[in-house]
Amino acid sequence: MQAKQYLNGFGNHFESEALPGALVKGRNSPQQVPYQLYAEQLSGSAFTNSRHQNLRSWLYRIRPSVLHHEFSLVKQTQFIGAPFSDEFTPPIQMRWNPMPYPEKPTDFINGIVTFAGNGNLDTQTGAAIHLYCANQSMERDYFYNADGEMLIVPQEGGLLFHTEFGALDVVPGEIIVIPRGVKFQVKLLHNKARGYICENYGSPFRLPDLGVIGSNGLANARDFQIPVAAFVEQTGDFILLAKFNSQLWQAKISHSPLDVVAWHGNYAPYKYDLRLFNTINTVSFDHPDPSIFTVLTSPSAHPGTANVDFVIFPARWMVATDTFRPPYFHRNIMSEYMGLIYGSYDAKETGFLPGGGSLHNCMSAHGPDAEAYEKAVNSSLKPEYYDNTLAFMFESRQVWKLTSKAYNSHYRQKNYQNCWQGLRAHFQSKELA
Fold first, then answer.
1. Tens digits of residue pLDDT in 258-312
2. What is the pLDDT at residue 4?
3. pTM over 0.90
4. Is residue 30 part of a domain?
5. What is the DSSP letter of 411?
6. What phi, psi does 236 have (nearest 5°)?
7. Per the structure, how many domains does the chain have?
8. What angle do CA 270, 271, 272 make, to 5 degrees?
9. What's the CA gap between 148 and 135, in Å, rounded?
10. Which of 78, 123, 254, 429 lies at a 20 to 30 A Cα distance from 11?
11. For residue 234, what are the domain limits?
């Protein structure tokens, strides 16, 4: 069950209650809360942030979040965080096949493998890229991330996120964002599930400013969905997992932490259907920069330069005349990790597979492969609809530093550069008369 409500990144206020009268009116923390609940504030920004950037919600829950046992370190090396080493990040273009599914039962959290990252947790800058493969639901474990918010991009199989705020389901073609600190549990809607995660250490994701585009276009605020309150009243032997300071921790807990009966505020999980994205493109000539496909952005302290952007390349019309329509050859100050959710990508119709990924770091040249180039320069330019395609990009102002698992994985394509080797020199010089 979910509510369709307006969300623009800052300033909005939502409220929801699972029982009539559970939501406190007129004040946030009265002497006695209805139903003898506990009042608890969850803050996603500094208390002293300007009003339009202040993120917080009040939760009215059966038990407060302090009620758990001591945390101990979980010894594992695949779900990690900043700082990242430079050891496995050469300035070459890289591409991977889809990550294989695990052979043993593996839930969402245990199926996360860290691929790359950048930034510094101490200064709350940068982000990390993870892949996940799961074939089992979380049953007695719950999780929260103290390091950053999580933008989750399913590629195969649906997921049901039970959060403190309520439940949201998400399938390929949709995304879900879980804010920093929010507890959740993931159930599989199918036998297996696979996808991508951007863990954002910096400013929370928000809609980009539209500038000269005007008031409409790209992702519209009205299409974002948030959960409605739905509490779980359950006791037993459970585990609370936490990602804190780049490491995974666990603590015993004797009740479900998803026991929020009512809440209000502007800090909550949300989902978005990428098929509702209102694509902006040229209707004359030339190829606009990929920034026109930005769904969400995490701004940096430098105006106009993102900490990390989430960009998509969805189904769309291509009508530009006298124009090389695929992405042009380019070198970029930003660093780009790209994934494919379904279909094919027009600049790499072979070799770039759904569930796979590519990495073109700062100033690493990239563009269409030889096959795509020849097709683009020799085809007749009639209006064409690019159907059955959905690719995305995590784009950062900082270099994506690879983990050893990503660099040394058996599913990394060791011959990726071969896709450009067929590009021939067509230039012919002649003396001027």
1. 999 999 999 999 999 999 999 999 999 998 899 999 999 999 999 889 999 999 9
2. 32
3. yes
4. no
5. T
6. 155, -165
7. 2
8. 135
9. 25
10. 123
11. 70-257+269-274
Compute the distance between CA of residue 399 and CA of residue 53 in angstroms, rounded to an integer: 27
Instruction: Report the percent of the chain where pLDDT is more than 70.
Output: 97
Q: In what order do the strands lie in the sheet with 193-200?
A: 2-4, 225-227, 270-273, 174-178, 149-156, 193-200, 127-134, 112-117, 401-402
Distance, in Å, from the CA atom of 406 to the CA atom of 88, rounded to the nearest integer, reads 9
Parallel/antiparallel/unpaired status of strands 235-244 and 141-145: parallel
Cβ neighbourhood burial of 324 (10 Å; 0-12, 13-18, 19+): middle
Whether 341 and 309 have beta carbons less than 8 Å apart is answered as no
Note whether residue 99 is domain-resident. Answer: yes
Q: In a 3-state reduction of DSSP, which class is residue 30? A: coil
Beta partners for residue 127, in sequence order: 200
Q: Are residues 239 and 303 in the same domain?
A: no
State which amino acid sits at residue 296: L
Strand-pair partners of 58: 41, 264
Phi and psi at residue 378, to the nearest 5°: -110, -5
DSSP E strands, 202-279: 225-227, 235-244, 247-255, 260-265, 270-273
CA pair distance 267, 260, nearest whole angstrom: 14
Q: Is 410 a catalytic residue?
A: no
Could you identify the residue written with the tokens 């949201």?
168
Q: Which of 162, 287, 302, 360 is catalytic?
A: 287
Amino acid in the structure at residue 236: G
Phi and psi for 293 in degrees, rounded to 5?
-105, 20
Looking at the structure, tell me whether residues 235 and 120 fall in a common domain.
yes
Q: Which of 4, 10, 55 is nearest to 207 (CA)?
A: 10
φ, ψ for residue 211 (rounded to 5)?
55, -130
Q: Which helix (H) or strand (E) holds 61?
A: strand 56-61
Q: Do 225 and 270 contact (CB within 8 A), yes or no?
A: yes
